[in-house]
Every structure is written in structure tokens, then in C-alpha cells.
Amino acid sequence: MSSAGDADGFPCSRWHLGLDAVNAPVKVRPLVDDDVPAAQEVAHSALREAGKRYGWTMPELDEVTRARGEQRIRHCLAHDPDGAFVADVAGEVVGVGLATVRTNQWFLSLLTISTALQGQGAGRQLLEATMGTLRGPGAICASDDPKALRRYRSAGFALQPTYEAKGALDRSRLPRVTGVREGSYDGDRDLVEEVGTALRKAPHGPDMDFYAEGGLPLYVTDTPAGRGYVLCRDAGPSLLGATTEEAASRLLWTALAETTEDEVTVAWLTSNQQWALDVVLDAHLALRPRGSRCLRGDLGPMAPYIPNGALG
Predict the structure, then answer these.
(1) What is the pLDDT of residue 119?
(2) Which of 85, 131, 214, 219 has the fewest CB atoms within 10 Å, measured from its CB?
(3) How far apart are CA 175 and CA 257, in angstroms?
(4) pLDDT tens digits for 87-135?
């Protein structure tokens, strides 16, 4: 069971649980800092195994991926300790659940359990623990795992299928984009938070510091045609929000132009984001159904908006 989140973050090759451990009771308890390395490793391994079944690829667990994953867990632990839990069997971390709250908006950042223990109720226990901080609207960027989707629907979330665009970018398709400039996490913070709050009824808050520390380039637009922002990864946009579809399209084209990987990915595109579907199709990326946005309560218009899979 897993919430896919972002490839920036995290799937148990070394988690071969013995029979006694598998049969031992699962204890869900608060995550502490000493748990972070084990939590990151079990999350990466479980998501990697799930990816083999449901068609996504996790990066190898090299030192860069490990450090990035641990940074993400520590960020959630530092800012949302009441939503951070691990599943423990006989003293061994076998699962992790992370939920954030910005203003009153809840987001499930990560929920994953060791493959050896899936289907035994540990995932449900982790989800219930993280939902202890859910007091208002909530959202999840979920994988194609049918067990996870069943659990989220049972918990009251509406399931909204999403598309993923992927492929080699034909740079001859890139248009000349005007009105977009390189942004500053300090100087453009107000613009980002004003636009983001209008879209999702909650600011990004400390998550912007996490993105800045991760070195994600920020681009912004602030013209009569609209305002907005995009955070860029080497393989595509990490987060995008705008006041108009025209501004959003310019920002998405900018993010595509900034990619350096051989394969580009644009994820979490819902049916009300036709502007984004038009861009990725014009870029000749392959479009296919992948994952779901799981929504509960009034989260705002959420469009034009491409969420970050790990932090909403």
C-alpha cells in the first residue's frame, strides 16, 4: 500500500522479516528523529516494489536519493510532528505515515508499509493515525495501488483520476515564452503565497523553505495576462499555480524548457486542467491515466494548479 508522492522523495530489499516478526503485533507510534533512516529505507523499498506492480520507476537508493528522502521526512517531522508515525514490529520500523497541515488543509505526504506486512491492517492503522490531524479539507496524491484507493475512499475521500505525461522532449516544439522570469524565494514569496492561497485556500508556508533548500529553481510571471509560479525539477515541473490558464501555460512551457533529463514527466493532471493537457500534447509527450487525486472537503478551485506529489 502506498501513496506515491513525488519521485523527489522516496519504495523492502533489506527488510526480509522473519516469520516471528511477521506474526508479531504491529505497533503504530510517533516517529522520532532516530527512526528517519529506517523509515526512509523501508518507504523507498516498499514503493519500489509497488512500482514494479503498477508501472512506475523509483530511482536507485544512492546517497543523493537517500539524503533527499531523509530531508523530506525530517521536514514533515519538524513542522508536523503530530502527523508523523511509524509502524513498528518487534522494534523494527516496517512502515511510515506522514501528514502535513497548512492553515487547516491536511495533506497525506507519505503512507507506505513493508511488502511483507501489506494486507494485514498495518496500513489502515497508519492512515488512521495520520488522520488524527485532519480537521478540515484534505487531499492525497495517490498511486494506482487498488488497496490504497479503496482505503482512501472508505475514509471519505472523493477519487479524481489523473493523467501523467511522459517521454523524450522534442525541443523543436518549445515556443518562445514571454512574461516569465527567474524568481527569488525571498523576493517573490508574497506573490507565490498570494496565488497559492487563492488556489488552495492555504499557503505553502514552510514547504517553500524545503523547496528552496532542495535547490528547485523558481520561475514567476506577474503580467496583465496573469500571475503565477512554477518550481522546476530536472525532469519537469514540481509545483505550479497561476491565476489564469494563459499564465499557467507559459509557466509549464518554461518548466519543460528547463528540463535536463532525457525523459520528462508531468504528473497529477486532472480533467479540469485542459490547459496543461494541451501543453503536454503539443510537446508530443505520451499521455496516459496514472494515479488519483483524493479530495475531501472544500480545498478551493485548485486550478490552474499542478500539485507537488509530496507536499500538496
Answers:
(1) 67
(2) 214
(3) 9
(4) 999 999 999 999 999 999 999 999 999 877 776 788 899 999 999 999 9
Q: What is the largest CA-CA distance in the chain?
A: 65
pTM > 0.85: yes or no: yes
Q: Residue holding cell 514503493?
A: 47
What pLDDT is stored for residue 10 in this prediction?
32
Give the CATH number for residue 60: 3.40.630.30
Q: Give the Å distances, CA to CA, from 268 to 88, 94, 173, 287.
A: 31, 28, 22, 11
Residue 235 shares a structural domain with residue 273 = yes
Amino acid at 121: G
Q: Which residues pair with 131 in a beta bridge?
A: none
- Does residue 234 lie in a domain region? yes
- Residues (pLDDT < 50) of the chain are 1-2, 4, 6-20
pLDDT for residue 47: 84
SS3 274: helix
Q: Are residues 171 and 301 in the same domain?
A: yes
Q: Does 253 map to a domain?
A: yes
Tell me whether residue 271 is in a domain.
yes
CA distances from 283 to 103, 252, 262, 311 (A): 36, 11, 14, 27
230 and 237 in contact (C-beta within 8 Å)?
yes
Helix (H) or strand (E) holding 109: strand 105-113
Distance CA 137, CA 106 (A): 6
Place of cell 522546476: 232
**Which DSSP category does 157 fall into?**
P
* 152 located within any domain: no
Enclosing domain of residue 49: 19-138
